[in-house]
Every structure is written in C-alpha cells, then in structure tokens.
Design goal:
By secondary structure, the chain is of the alpha/beta class. Helices cover 52% and strands 12% of the residues. The chain contains 14 helices and 8 strands. α6 links the parallel β5 and β6.
Length: 403
C-alpha cells in the first residue's frame, strides 16, 4: 500500500467514525421529535386559515348621473340588494369574504367642472344602508361624461386592498362614448388592472353603440366584461306566497337591533328609512333587501350592540349609561350581557326563518323570472352585474355554496 493510499484510508476511517458519533448523539433527539401525521398537518393548516383575515370583495359602482340616467339610478337602487345576496353564498378557502361597496357619480353638471363633474359619494364601506341612502339621494343633471377620468379617480381616491386573492372590481355604467374627457380611457384601464382591479363596462344602450363607443375595448383592456342594458326597463315584481310573511319577519328583525353610541339612533332610523325607500322602488327589491339583512354581509357593529359584541368591538361593562338605549340603562354588566344575548338569539331565529322562506320564494319565481328575462331582450343592471361577478369570482378560485 502506498503512502498516499494509506493517508486516504485513514482519513475516510476518521470521517466515518465522526459521523457515527454524530448520528448516535442526534438519534435520541430525532426520536423525541416525531414527524407530524397528515391529520395534524391538516389541523395546523385549518387553524392557520382560521386565524388569517378573510378575503375581501370590493365593488365600486361608477354611475353616470347625467340627465338621461334616471332609469339607471333607479335600477341601482333596486338591485343593490340582489347583488349583495350573490355574496352570501360566496366562499374563499371555506370562509365568507368581507364585502365592501363604494359609490361614485360622474357626468353631473351640478359637480365642479375642474374636478371632472364627478365625486366619490361613499368610499369603501360595509355599511350597506349608507350606500342605499346615498343612491336614493342621487339626482341627475346634464353634464360631460368622462369615463377614463372616473376610473382614474376611483383608483386614486378609493382605498383598494393590496392582496391578489381579493376580488376587486369597478362597474362603470353610462351611455356616452367611453373616449370622452382629458384622461385616456386606455391608460386608466391599464392603471386599474395593474393594481388587480377589473373594470366591467355597462353601456346603457344597444351593443353596436357600446362597441363603437369603446366600452367593449375598455373592458377588454382591464380583463372585465362588456355588457349592455336597457336602463329604462322597469323592475318587475313576481308575487310569491312567502312575500307577506317575509315582510312581517323584517319588522321582527328590526326589533332585535340594540343601538349604542352617539350615532346609534340615527343609524336605526336610516335602516327603517331604507326599508321604506327600497319598498317604494318595487316589491322585489324590498324582499331582496330582507334577504340581505338575514345574511352575514349585513352587519352594523358601528351602531348595533348585537353585531358589536359578536365582532368583539365593544366591552359592555365599559359603556356609559348614556351610550345605551333607554331599555338598558341602569343595568349591571351581567344584565347587559344577558339582554344583548337574548336579542342575538331572537335575531338568529328570525334570520333563519327569512333564509328558509327566501329560498322557497326563489324556487317559486325562478322559472317565471327566466321567462320574463327572455321576453325583455336586454338585461337590466342587476342581471348584468350578477353574471359578470359569478364568472370573475370563479376565475379567482372563489366558490359558491348552497346555504
């Protein structure tokens, strides 16, 4: 054996000896740390998902409020609640997403021309009654309709989320060419989609005018849907056997709300006022709103103690007597908790009845609604939005479940 060969053999032997010592030392530690079973890994993943914030759905409505758009606004007032109901069955990673809605108006000559005849009416909010209230407050007035600038302002002034899993969409509706105004619609649409915001365009008129007016092109640039609607189409109410009971349950539901804070009474009045306003548009809109109020998307933790306690936004023991409704003043901490819990249980029972009756009602009117839609030809705002939303949510891996 050569000297080099002997040196190599000795080196290898030493390395093997060192490895055997290391293995003997770490073996007990490895034995004390079992590899997690697949079930444990799944449980850990489920726990992590539960702790992570839920996904968010953000819908920004950009409505043309020039003189010819009264029908469009009326449809928006009616169909806000049918669109909200769409999200009651939406899930991402098994959880219901948070829903935020924003409202903008553009094309109204009553607004400052130096700002493009537009304004953010309501920034992103979960307060759906506030959105409804502002929709009913909109008034049309002749003006210049600058779609590109409206999209740019929506991107600049609204607080969009940064997460790629969230569904973020603009729905812009109007009837003048998409090309008008100082901001190039193509650049505005590119700005939106670069931030993960889909732009859906809704032309109030026939398809050929929408195509030539570049409404379709705007949607194509920003991965959205191009739709045409008849803004003058009336909202049709199909009567069903469940209608009267649902209206009665709505009154019972309102009675379970427990106001608190300086704005509680005002918000409760807004709730009742919006019930009446939506009912004035159509019976169908009223019942869509009742169904929405029975879903998790309708929450009022900023003025209602039942929702606030559930969201852990208040400590009942720390609230001052003057911040509480008359019925709760003078109660101690235990009595307050029992009172709110009783209202919560009553609300849950009423909401369960509303959901069951609404499901029956939907089955009853589904066939007739399809028939009426086929006869009407052009869709209305609600039908156009619902179709686009479902398709786009599925593309982002959102699921729909039957409640």
């Amino acid at each position: 054996m050569t000297r080099d060969h002997l040196r190599l053999t000795t080196t290898l032997a030493a390395a093997l000896f060192a490895f055997s010592v290391f293995a003997a030392e770490v073996a007990p530690r490895q034995a004390a740390e079992p590899v997690p079973a697949p079930a444990a890994e799944a449980a850990d993943k489920t726990d992590a998902q539960a702790k992570a914030p839920a996904a968010t759905i953000q819908i920004a409505l950009l409505l043309d409020t020039s003189s010819s758009m009264n029908g469009l606004i009326n449809q928006a007032r009616a169909h806000l609640w049918s669109v909200v109901n769409q999200f009651a069955s939406t899930r991402y990673d098994g959880r219901m997403p948070n829903l935020e809605v924003a409202l903008m108006e553009y094309g109204n000559s009553g607004l400052p021309g130096e700002e493009g005849f537009m304004r953010v009416v309501v920034p992103f909010t979960t307060d759906l009654d506030k959105v409804s209230e502002e929709l009913f407050a909109l008034r049309t007035n002749g003006g210049q309709e600058y779609c590109g600038q409206a999209i740019h302002v929506a991107m600049k002034e609204l607080l969009w989320t940064k997460s790629n899993r969230d569904y973020k969409a603009i729905f812009i509706a109007g009837n003048e060419p998409f090309t008008q105004g100082p901001v190039d619609y193509r650049e505005a649409c590119k700005e939106a989609i670069a931030a993960g915001v889909i732009v859906n365009t809704i032309h109030c008129g026939n398809e050929s005018a929408g195509v030539s007016g570049m409404w379709q092109d705007g949607a194509t640039i920003a991965d959205g849907s191009f739709m045409t609607i008849d803004q003058q189409r009336a909202v049709v109410h199909i009567k069903a056997p469940q209608d009267e009971e649902l209206s009665q349950l709505n009154a019972q539901l309102n009675a379970t709300y427990v106001t608190y804070g300086k704005d509680g009474a005002v918000a409760a009045e807004r709730q009742s006022a919006q019930d009446a306003a939506v009912a004035g548009v159509s019976g169908a809109a009223q019942l869509d709103r009742v169904a929405s109020k029975a879903s998790a998307n309708y929450r009022n933790d900023h003025w209602d103690l039942v929702d606030a306690v559930e969201a852990e936004k208040v400590d009942l023991a720390e609230l001052k007597d003057e911040e509480l409704p008359e019925a709760m003043r003078g109660m101690d901490a235990k009595e307050r908790a029992e009172y709110v819990q009783k209202q919560a249980e009553e609300r849950a029972a009423v909401q369960a009845k509303i959901r069951a009756l609404s499901a029956e009602r939907n089955l009853h009117i589904e066939a007739e609604r399809k028939k009426l839609a086929a006869e009407a030809g052009e869709a209305d705002l609600g039908e156009a939005m619902l179709g686009a939303v479902r398709e786009q949510l599925r593309a982002k891996q959102y699921e729909f479940v039957e409640e």
